[in-house]
User: Fold these one by one.
Assistant:
Number 1:
Amino acid sequence: MQDACALALTKWPAEGVPSSPRGWLIGVARHKALDRLRREARRVRLEAVAVRDWPGTADEPCGEAGTVAAADDELALIFMCCHPALDPEARIALTLRCVCGLATADIAAAFVVPEPTLAQRLVRAKRKVRQAGIRLKPPDRDDLQRRLATVLRVIYLVYTQGHMAAAGPDLVRGALCEQAIRLARALAALIPGEPEVAGLLALLLITDARRAARTSDAGGLVPLGSQDRGRWDAAEIAEGAALLEQALTAGRPGPYQLHAAIAACHVQPETDWREIAALYSELARYEPTAVTEANRAVAVAMAEGPAAGLAILDSLGTRLARWPQFHIARAELLRMTGRTGEAITAFRRALDLPLPHPERTFLQKRITELRDARDG
């Protein structure tokens, strides 16, 4: 129905409003739904054929332990789609869309880019696969390592879109969280002893342990500091901590081990914000992005005061203008420094962007509280 309404906004001004707008919308929506069902039916069939027809070799038959063909079917398809001939961002986006089933809007939110920009990346990636005749087939053992970083990123982004929905009625999409954890477990079984794989699984488990406490019984957002720790999953935290310790002993640090270490700090009885800030500084060596720097800014604010964090956020300029969490973090630090009017403006900028309904409700309540405190 959303697609039908979007088409109406394009066609009706140019061609005129139909005599029965309601009937037109229902008919177009029905055709689009049928088209989507047909595409999904073909995708499932083609994936099944791909799984069935994976080639083997004399010394590495299809299904041998330690090969992609022996792994989780979806994980095997992810490895196939993460082809090194494609640009890294394009291969990640294409895999998230075509294998993991994420919507284009969700992938755009993960990359912090406009949806049309992401859609064009997908079109270009598909065109390159077609025109260059790239054959998507299971990688051999040597090629596994070359594709591993991309596969890790795909699984991580699937989880982040489940942990914090880009939009919609729910804050958390549990099915995506569980999908990512399942894929991470399959990857750990496929490549045992790889510290970054263990680090990713540790990160997902430690973070997911808080899932039940992140929303109220009514579905509202509950900030980390207000969560009932009794609702955290102690078994997941313990398993994640053990995996993190195992990964760190290998002496080969990487971004997912650092992410996991940060997550572990958040589940300690007392949060060591200086340690978290230091971990984000180290993470910036592997992921020198504005998002990493924004997260470090929040940790610095908690350790050294809001003014220090604001200075870092303000230095990022407009690079994160499309990321609502940037505006939310800035609003909270402005609120802590007593700059109420600027905080309200920053919260409103976040509300101008896609957000899940529980977070939108939380921010609207924040604005009301700030306005009442200022006017009272």
Note: Residues 44-65 have pLDDT under 50 and may be disordered.
Number 2:
Amino acid sequence: MAGLSTDAAVAAFREEGGRVVAALIRLTGDWDLAEEAVQEAFARALERWPRDGVPAKPAAWLTTTARNHALTRLRRSSLESAKLREVATLGAPEEDVDPSGVPDDRLRLMFTCCHPALPLDGRVALTLRTLAGLTTAEIARAFLVSESAMAQRLVRTRRKIRDAGIPYRVPPAHLLPERLSGVLGVLYLLFNEGYAATAGDSPSRHDLCVEAIRLSRTLAALMPGEPEVEGLLALMLLQHSRRAARMDADGELVTLEDQDRSSWNRPEIDEGVALLDVALRRGVAGPYQLQAAIAACHATAPTAAETDWPQIAALYGELARRVPSPVVELNRAVAVAMAEGPSAGLALVDLAAESGKLAGYHLLPATRADLLRRLGRRGEAAAAYREALALAGTEADRRFLSRRLAEISDAD
């Protein structure tokens, strides 16, 4: 029974935590206090629910407990009584007035959080932390920065909100487009963390992928004709279509070239390709459409050998031109290696390593190790695999790299 109560607390926090945080931020104007209050409510739920039972309305319980904690803190700070009265009357989050026309609570709050007065990376990171439930460490890995650097970025963003008096309120419908880039960034990184988890026992988090796809579908219905919204949804569907083939019966990672393509989800592939075609016909190919086009090359190839690697390399080249990124350059190196041979790809990987922008990113030495293995340079490959092993964040990644290292060692 205690285990079920704990699961209920975790589920309630995951589903409702962002909404309660948002309501408290709106009323108190204090991001730190709002997050502290919700964390305190969650801690109390973990303590009390196993003993007293799960309340009939878990979300309302979290809201009330968080509100009471915020009230206590405000009283201790001797803030104005008007603010105290506002927080004291806080009800369930669904009572908020909605001028946006966005039909989904969580998506509406993402638009609220992604204020255009904030730097794009700051608003995306803050929304992932506050509303999507990702930890500072997970967000840091997504941005390829240290956890301390990301923590400082979040502090600076909150400070700007406070010092500039940026209001936390649901934007009206006509202001949604200026916030779209931030919301797309949040959904993209939320899906990525689900598709390829950066830490933990599992290489993926299915719940995050499903939620990102659901929100992207809602966004596509809300803003029809937006090619990058269609492109992002297409990308998610094409990537998600391979989920059943990414691990074998023993829970081990399976590389793309070795996956059983008959287990790929054909309806998701068909929908993703159709969405991409619609988006591309609009004549404004953005980064999400380019990534979806790359995913479509993989998803529509009958076999690994028939993959159009020259086209994928060209698409990565265009993507790198549009959105310069060391991760894109690393992926382009892999595509070049498959199209022109491992030596050509290795030269690009070495350039990426020299830049220092991917320091600490385990896929850099892992990619280098694979290309060295293909070239028969087993000693260098083994050293690179060991480096990747030391950096890998998930158990599944470490087991995969260990197997590769063992294969090289057994061949000596």
Note: The longest helix spans residues 2-28.
